[in-house]
């Protein structure tokens, strides 16, 4: 009688068990790899969003107080008196979580702006709301000036610009001013949330973003922008 050749039940069960273990191992590797990829992609996206917004704000901070040749501006669109907006071109409201910037616009004719400023660079600098300013007189230079208000809405986890949503998934937004020891000083001696505009030399912006599905850790980025124009 010839012996039958082939696999027994034990060998088949062992083969199935080994195949199942290998399949589970490969599945786990795939899941881990995909999870790592999604985490890294989410982290990179958060950093990219934060950097984009902060870079935009840094450019605007550098133009704060750029009102032409004179330090004082008369706002004729508000009854012909100096307004608080021009007296405090950069301001952080802790209660409202809002940063207000009065900055120069780069293009008078094509960009949106709040005021049109006329100055002769010797005695007068007047601002009127866009559309109400007359033609610049002979010897006058005209400039466009923005009012930009960044407000953090904690309840909605959102940063808005002039009332329009700008960035979502924001955990925190904070502003500190680097101030000098005196009006003539140039070096920053401390950072504070409230300061006399004449003492402000830089602005530190901190933005924290989070992933709504928890694929990545919170990302906190901080930048410091120097004030190029003397304030106050």
Please outline the major beta sheet.
Answer: 8 strands, mixed
Q: Please, what is the average pLDDT?
A: 83
Distance between the amino and carboxyl termini: 111 Å
- The number of helical runs is 2
Listing every helix as H and every strand as E from the N terminus to the C terminus, the arrangement reads HEHEEEEEEEEEEE
Measured as a percent range, the helix fraction is 25-40%
Poorly predicted residue ranges: none
- The total of beta strands comes to 12
Shape: elongated
Q: By helix and strand content, what is the structural category?
A: alpha+beta
Instruction: Note the quaternary state here.
Output: single chain
What is the CA-based Rg, rounded? 29 Å
Strand content: 25-35%
Please characterize this protein's 3D structure.
- Helix content is 25%, strand content 33%.
- It has 232 residues and is of the alpha+beta class.
- It has helices spanning 9-62, 84-87; strands spanning 74-75, 90-93, 98-104, 115-119, 125-129, 141-153, 158-161, 164-168, 170-179, 190-192, 200-209, 219-226.
- The longest helix has 54 residues, at 9-62.
- The chain has a domain at 65-226.
- The chain is built from two helices and twelve strands, in the order αβαβββββββββββ.
- The chain is elongated and about 110 Å long.
How does the SSE layout of this entry go?
Blueprint: H1 9-62, E1 74-75, H2 84-87, E2 90-93, E3 98-104, E4 115-119, E5 125-129, E6 141-153, E7 158-161, E8 164-168, E9 170-179, E10 190-192, E11 200-209, E12 219-226
Parallel strand pairs: 1-5
Antiparallel strand pairs: 2-3, 3-6, 4-5, 4-6, 6-7, 7-8, 9-10, 9-11, 11-12
């Amino acid at each position: 009688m010839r012996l039958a050749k082939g696999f027994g039940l034990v060998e088949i069960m062992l083969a199935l068990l080994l195949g199942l273990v290998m399949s589970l191992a490969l599945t786990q590797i795939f899941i881990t790899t995909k999870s790592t990829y999604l985490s890294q992609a989410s982290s990179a996206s958060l950093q990219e969003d934060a950097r984009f917004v902060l870079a935009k704000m840094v450019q605007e901070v550098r133009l704060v107080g750029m009102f032409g040749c004179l330090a004082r501006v008369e706002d004729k669109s508000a009854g012909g008196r100096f307004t608080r907006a021009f007296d405090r071109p950069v301001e952080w409201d802790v209660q409202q979580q809002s940063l207000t910037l009065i900055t120069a616009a780069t293009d008078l004719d094509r960009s949106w702006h709040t005021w049109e400023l006329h100055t002769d660079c010797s005695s007068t600098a007047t601002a009127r709301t866009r559309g109400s300013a007359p033609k610049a007189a002979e010897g006058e230079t005209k400039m466009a000036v923005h009012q930009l208000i960044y407000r953090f809405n904690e309840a909605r986890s959102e940063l808005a610009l002039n009332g329009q949503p700008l960035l979502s998934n924001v955990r925190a937004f904070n502003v500190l001013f680097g101030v000098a020891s005196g009006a003539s000083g140039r070096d920053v001696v401390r950072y504070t949330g409230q300061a006399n505009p004449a003492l402000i030399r830089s602005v530190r912006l901190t933005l924290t973003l989070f992933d709504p599905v928890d694929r990545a850790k919170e990302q906190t980025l901080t930048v410091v922008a120097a004030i190029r124009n003397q304030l106050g």
